[in-house]
Design goal:
With 748 residues, this protein is mainly α. It has 25 helices and no strands. About 1% of the residues have low confidence.
Length: 748
């Protein structure tokens, strides 16, 4: 039995390694998004700064927060077997949930995942004890801690957003978007306040568990002399910032990089327990059992050692190894970049691809805000409104090429997030660093007027989706952990082994799906260049290239989908038909994004050129849309027919269709090549060939209608064949129109 629990511990440690990787990927948004969004430095430099902070924070942490040991459960009432059931359930739940959120590119809280996982797992075992011994739930579970976390969620979401909005609005009034012209009398003070705030955050939050500060009494001195420390740091750092400014050093970059280091360090020092707390607590309980068990069984030996402070030998080595794993993960994880992209996309200053769609609640929110703003604006002094608008003039924005927002906002994001975490820590509120960092970023982007009327509904939907995911995390962690712990308790060894196998399969499958999705996603660098380009002639060239690619992709989609539909019809291949259905739904979503991008591009080109090309642009858009719906109309009756196992297509119909399908495929292939190459020399010849194919289809349709009147054939099959011919003819018409529109649009 001892060997079995040792194997469970080994698996928990393996899960902890994986948890460290997926956890740092998810929480990377806390400290990477401001620096990445503002293009403070090369991405590798930002990663190096964050990695150093992570390693230092992990290595200097005292390592074991009480929450993993006795923050939720009362360990003296739980046996070693109970503890192992709970910790295995928590580790499995934590890894699965975080991996799912990372795969979706959604930031969530590792703290909430662990706390509610512990609460769910402990509750499952507590229920059995209540039934068997009649103990009270409050004796077995620390309900106050769970309540504190829930309160912290609501407070961190609301407070961070409101403070982000207010502080950014005031900061922008001071610096404006052309901030380099307003630095002389304000940058030293701003830099001094910012660096002082970050430094104090580093001491209070990032190093609060540091063994060095505790052993030498530095923590006690800081607690007694806070005002002196803050005043001295403010004076010294303000003078230093002025000197650096005179030496032409960009103070905002200094603030952002220092803030990135501090937040990364605090994350590693404080949130480390979320990843390795439960495995180390389980290890300590097992060691206590082997030393003090005295022949007791694991079902009767109480894990009382977890009620006191940690005495695990070699604990510091575990922390250093954890730091190395997290540091490696931040460099290697593609999911970390995806999570960071979600926050950056929702807070970027300019228009661009919106990841989220519109929602009813977002539309109502925007409408209410617009009405409220109009009412306030009606009573505000005209001079004040005019002055504020000049301070928020985005036409003169000073932003690096490829950046989502400027350095001023990046600095405010980091400084304010650090300050709010410090305040929350001093008030003993369990604020989530993920929640604070994300909501500050959303508040500052709203203050910067990044949520314009064209983008607000999409951004608000994104924010609501992310916040909803946070609450889902709590509920899902509780239910999943409760279920797994209960099955572990009832099923014993068999259930635990089965859980391990299922968990391994789930993780492998999730990673395969993520890689497949990542490979399928097109990183539209061309569109990003188009959005940030200010030269109208160059913008036109980028727009033409973007339209060319999207139209070529549409023809490629039409070829493959038409092939799957007709193959499915002739050979009763249900798999091909279902693939066509998935492709159509995917293409609808993709085309919707492409169309919106290109409409934004049309607004950026020369006005007279836009007037000239507008008709052909929209004709191309409309025909691309019609191609999708034409294929959908062709698919639906075919899928219903084949899926219901109705009579197959007769051989004479198949023989009649085969040469026709080859001609259609050749037409689509030639059209795609012309659009891709931008060479329309043979376009007229292709249009004539397309008309000839249409005429041929018309002739076959008339023959089929005549057969239906004269012969006693299967009416369902005949109508299906007729529908396929008709939609094929429509497809050719749409492709012809698209070719003409593409030719006219690309011609200079």
């Amino acid at each position: 039995m001892d060997i079995f629990y040792l194997c469970i511990l080994a698996f928990l440690i393996v899960l902890a390694v994986f948890d460290l990787s997926v956890g740092v990927a998810n929480d990377a948004v806390n400290f990477l998004s401001p620096a990445v969004g503002a293009k403070v430095a090369k991405f590798r430099i930002v990663l190096i700064v964050a990695a150093i902070g992570i390693f230092v924070g992990a290595s200097t942490s005292s390592g074991m927060m009480d929450i993993a040991r006795h923050g939720i459960m009362t360990p003296q009432f739980y046996s070693l077997d109970d503890v192992m059931c709970i910790f295995l359930a928590v580790a499995a739940t934590d890894v699965i949930l975080l991996d799912i959120f990372n795969t979706l590119g959604m930031p969530t809280s590792t703290t909430v995942s662990m706390v509610f996982g512990l609460l769910g797992g402990s509750t499952a075992l507590a229920m059995s004890k209540i039934v068997s011994s009649g103990m009270a739930y409050e004796q077995l579970i620390n309900t106050d801690k769970a309540l504190q976390v829930i309160i912290g969620i609501f407070l961190s979401v609301a407070i961070a957003f409101v403070f982000g909005l207010i502080v950014m609005w005031i900061t922008r009034l001071v610096f404006t978007f052309n901030y380099k012209k307003h630095l002389r009398w304000s940058i030293a003070l701003f830099g001094g306040v910012s660096v002082t705030s970050i430094f104090y955050f580093l001491l209070v939050s990032g190093l609060k568990n540091s063994k060095i500060l505790i052993d030498y009494g530095i923590s006690d001195w800081i607690a007694c002399h806070r005002l002196l420390l803050l005043g001295g740091c403010l004076v010294c750092f303000t003078i230093l910032m002025e000197i650096l400014h005179l030496l032409h050093v960009n103070i905002f970059k200094v603030v952002v990089l220092f803030g990135t280091f501090s937040l990364a360090m605090a994350f590693a020092g404080n949130d480390l327990v979320n990843f390795i707390g439960t495995p180390l607590a389980g290890l300590e309980a097992f060691i206590d059992f082997t030393v003090n068990g005295d022949g007791q069984s694991a079902n009767s030996f109480k894990a009382e050692v977890l009620a006191g402070p940690s005495t695990l030998p070699g604990k510091q080595y575990f922390l250093v190894v954890a730091g190395v794993i997290m540091t490696t993960a931040i460099f290697m994880s593609k999911k970390a970049r995806k999570v960071v992209e979600t926050t950056v996309n929702l807070s970027r200053q300019d228009d661009g691809e919106e990841v989220f769609s519109s929602s009813k609640i977002a539309r109502k929110t925007v409408r209410s805000v617009l009405n409220a703003t109009a009412t306030i604006s009606r009573y505000a002094p005209r001079g004040f409104k005019s002055w504020v608008n000049t301070r928020f003039n985005t036409d003169v924005i000073d932003m690096d090429e490829g950046a989502a927002f400027d350095l001023v906002r990046a600095s405010v994001n980091l400084v304010l997030a650090g300050l709010l975490i410090v305040v929350g820590t001093s008030l003993q509120l369990p604020l989530s660093t993920t929640y604070v960092a994300f909501m500050v970023a959303m508040g500052t982007s709203l203050a910067d007027r990044a949520w314009g009327r064209e983008t607000a509904v999409y951004r608000i939907t994104g924010v609501i989706t992310v916040i909803g995911g946070w609450f889902i995390t709590a509920g899902a962690a509780f239910i999943m952990s409760l279920t797994i712990a209960f099955l572990n308790h009832v099923g014993g060894i068999f259930a635990m082994v089965l859980l391990i196998l299922v968990l391994v399969l789930v993780l492998i499958n999730n990673n395969r799906k993520f890689k497949k999705k990542k490979n399928a996603e097109e990183v539209d660098i061309l569109f990003r260049q188009l959005v940030r380009c200010h030269d109208k002639q160059q913008t036109w060239g980028l727009l033409v290239e973007h339209v060319r690619r999207s139209q070529a992709n549409m023809i490629d989609f039409a070829r493959s989908t038409f092939h799957n539909i007709t193959n499915g019809l002739m050979y009763e291949d249900i798999k091909s038909l279902k693939q066509a259905g998935h492709a159509i739904e995917e293409q609808k979503s993709t085309w919707k994004r492409y169309r919106r991008k290109e409409i934004l591009g049309m607004r950026k080109i020369d006005y007279m050129l836009a007037v000239e090309k507008n008709t052909w642009f929209h004709l191309g858009c409309n025909n691309s849309t019609q191609i999708i719906y034409c294929l959908k109309r062709m698919l639906e009756p075919t899928l219903e027919h084949v899926d219901n196992n109705f009579n197959p297509l007769p051989k004479e119909y198949q023989e009649e269709m085969r040469p026709l399908l080859k001609e259609v495929d050749l037409l689509l292939q030639r059209t795609q090549q012309m659009i891709v190459n931008g060479n329309f020399t043979d376009a007229d010849e292709l249009l004539v060939d397309a008309n000839s194919t249409k005429a041929q289809i018309s002739q076959i349709r008339h023959q089929q209608q005549d057969h239906m009147q004269r012969e006693n054939n299967n009416i369902k099959v005949a109508l299906l064949y007729l529908n396929t011919l008709q939609e094929t003819q429509e497809l050719i018409s749409m492709v012809r129109h698209l070719l003409r529109a593409s030719k006219r649009f690309q011609m200079v």
